[in-house]
C-alpha cells in the first residue's frame, strides 16, 4: 500500500514561495492564475494491508514529524 501525504501552509500563513511562483507566472504572461500556494508531497510505501491501521499510522506520522501542524495542514491518500 502507498500513502501520499500532501502538506501545505494553512490559510492566513504567508507563503513567500507561492508569491514568487505567482510573480514568475505573471512575468511569463500566464493569465488566469489567481493565487499560488506552495506545498510538499511525501510518498510512503507501506507494508500494511489494512487501510484503517495504515491511516492511523500515517496520521500519527504526519502529526508527529511530517507536518508542522501549527502552520501546516495535510491530507492523506491511501492507494
TrEMBL record:
Its EC number is 6.3.5.3. The keyword Cytoplasm applies. It catalyses: N(2)-formyl-N(1)-(5-phospho-beta-D-ribosyl)glycinamide + L-glutamine + ATP + H2O = 2-formamido-N(1)-(5-O-phospho-beta-D-ribosyl)acetamidine + L-glutamate + ADP + phosphate + H(+). The keyword Nucleotide-binding applies. It is found in: Cytoplasm. Keywords: ATP-binding, Cytoplasm, Ligase, Nucleotide-binding, Purine biosynthesis. GO terms for molecular function: ATP binding; phosphoribosylformylglycinamidine synthase activity. GO terms for cellular component: cytoplasm. InterPro entries: PurS, PurS-like_sf. Part of the phosphoribosylformylglycinamidine synthase complex involved in the purines biosynthetic pathway. Catalyzes the ATP-dependent conversion of formylglycinamide ribonucleotide (FGAR) and glutamine to yield formylglycinamidine ribonucleotide (FGAM) and glutamate. The FGAM synthase complex is composed of three subunits. PurQ produces an ammonia molecule by converting glutamine to glutamate. PurL transfers the ammonia molecule to FGAR to form FGAM in an ATP-dependent manner. Belongs to the PurS family. Part of the FGAM synthase complex composed of 1 PurL, 1 PurQ and 2 PurS subunits. This is Phosphoribosylformylglycinamidine synthase subunit PurS. It comes from uncultured Sulfurovum sp.
Amino acid at each position: 500500500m502507498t500513502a501520499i501525504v500532501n502538506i501545505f501552509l494553512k490559510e492566513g500563513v504567508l507563503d513567500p514561495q507561492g508569491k514568487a511562483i505567482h510573480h514568475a507566472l505573471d512575468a511569463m504572461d500566464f493569465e488566469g492564475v489567481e493565487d499560488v500556494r506552495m506545498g510538499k508531497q511525501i510518498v510512503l510505501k507501506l507494508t500494511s494491508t489494512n487501510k484503517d491501521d495504515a491511516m492511523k499510522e500515517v496520521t500519527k506520522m504526519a502529526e508527529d514529524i511530517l507536518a508542522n501542524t501549527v502552520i501546516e495542514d495535510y491530507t492523506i491518500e491511501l492507494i
